[in-house]
Here is the input.
Amino acid sequence: MQITDLPALNAILNGTAAALLSVGYVQIRRGRTEAHKRCMLAALATSALFLISYVVYHANVGSRPFPGSGIVRAAYFTILVTHVVLAAAILPLALITASRGLRAQFDRHVRIARWTLPLWIYVSVTGVVIYLMLYRMY
Here is the structure.
């Protein structure tokens, strides 16, 4: 694997995290707490691997300018700005949410998870969209 492969790996990790989060949500709705826990911890681990890969890539390569123009450029930057802002919030939210679940503080866990889950899925999915727009569209 080369450094230039990391953006694709990052997209795969983001997509995997989104899938694990979605499956984890379905599991808890079905009352399968152990399966929920495994999915959510796997999503946390996957997102941690993403963060490491992301930092390694950008520390070595820097950023890539978006080559598009017009409405596509405006859409890209709208998605990018919301993604970056919410990604900064996800790290503490995910850690607090997981900590509360692992400590069996389920009432507090559910209160924050209602916010964490949709934001985390949004960040994961838009990470894939940004990759596609930046590396595969042009």
